[in-house]
Amino acid sequence: MARRGGGPIADAFKFGLGAGLGFGLSHILFLILGMAFFFPGLIMLAKERKKSAEEKNKKNIYTAYALMAVGCVLGLGMGAGFLFSNALTDFGGE
Q: Can you tell me the distance from the alpha carbon of 45 to that of 77, in angstroms, rounded to the nearest whole number?
């Protein structure tokens, strides 16, 4: 009678497939979680930039950048370049 387990090669294949799927799905989860913080911050920043200089609220700008930073950290670096270039423009860059 043949053995149903398949031996050590089949076990290694099953383990690799399970680990790969788990790793990939966890990355997707963190990307979605990062986007859930990054995009509301981006929308908030765009709304504040459309306002005139007298109407702008610094607290809203700081909150927008904080949301974007949390989203960037959770989203595995997604949007880091955009975040840094905008922050340098708003906070004393050229």
A: 19
| Alpha helix positions (H), the chain | 7-50, 58-74, 80-90
Give residue-wise pLDDT tens across range 45-61: 999 989 988 888 889 99
Q: How far is Cα of residue 36 from the mean position of the Cα atoms in its chain?
A: 8
Phi, psi of 55 (to 5 degrees): -85, -15
Domain ranges of the chain: 31-94
80-90 and 58-74 are packed helices; what angle lies between their axes, rounded to 10 degrees? 160
pTM of the model: 0.75
Q: What is the pLDDT of residues 6-29, one digit of tens each?
A: 788 888 999 999 999 999 999 999
Q: How far apart (Å, rounded) are the C-alpha atoms in residues 6 and 9?
A: 7
